[in-house]
Each structure stands twice: as structure tokens, then as C-alpha cells.
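This entry is retained here.
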Amino acid sequence: MPILTRWFVKTSLQSARPGIGIMRHVHFKRRCAGVCYGAHKRATVACPFCVTLNRVDLARLGDRPKCGNCGRPILVDWPVAVTDATVHAVLAGTAVPVLMDCYADWCGPCKIMAPILDDFARDHQGAVLVTKLDTDRNRATTQRFGMRAIPTLLVFRHGREVNRHAGVISRQQLDALVSSPARG
């Protein structure tokens, strides 16, 4: 028997914190109804063609998400480009961990990391959002996060930086960086 699903957001008056709505996922079955808070995997991703921000349901990647503006496909199995204009919305609107690769086109070690990050994004599709930030074109974000070396890998959970690594690392070290708890 299929599970019927309904999404709704409580108003800020009903929320535990004023001004913040609570996303609630309700499963209806024949005998009982269970409520799961935060069960929804979602990400805010900029369309690579028209740069429109789109909310993508990562649990439904098999349905091939499309941009709401231009209708072209949004691919999250490769690193997604972010800019000064989109980085805040992507970090704030994503419920899964975000791995941000801060790179430059001329950087040799950054070119070594590219295939490792491509494989990581493909293997962790739906569980981790992999993004790329060009440090030469996006200096405001580079300064905001205090990056002094490239490549720099930043890990975010719930919009906050929890881990950081500067330099080239192996795939096993990358897995450990993303899965490790927040640094102290």
C-alpha cells in the first residue's frame, strides 16, 4: 500500500522560534499517522543555464528535477557552481551537508581535486550537495570565509561551517572530512 504524503509549513505564531516556520512531513497510513520533523532532504540550487534558484527535493532525484524558469535539467550528481550572489541562499536552503570546493582555474592542485570531487558528488548524490566556488571571480565570499589557500574544502551543516581543509586530499580523507563531527 503506498504512503500518501502531505507537506505544510506552520505559521510563525505556532513556531517555537518567532519568525521561523517549521517544516513538517506527515505520513498517512490506513491505521495510524506518523509525523516526522526534518525528514525532507532538500537543496537550493542555481540553474546552470539561467541562474535561477530552485528548491530540489533530493529524495526524488530519479524524477529528474528541472528549472522552474527555463525548464532545463538541474544536475546535482556533479559539483554545482555557486557565486557571491547565490552562496548564501544555497547554504541556507539546503537540509543536507554541503561540501564547497574553493578553487581557481589556474591552480594545479585544484585540477587534481576535480575528478575526486566529481566521483564524490556522484557517489553521495542526494546525501551531500557538492558545490564549487571560483575564488578569482567571487572575492567577497572568499574574504567572508577567510580563505588563504586553494584548494580549500569547506563543509557546512545547516548553513554553518563545521569543517575545513586546505590542500589536496585523497578520497578516503574527503569521506572522513564530510562525515566527521563539527570541529571544536
In short: Strands lie at 4-9, 23-28, 33-37, 42-46, 53-57, 80-82, 98-103, 129-134, 152-157, 160-166.
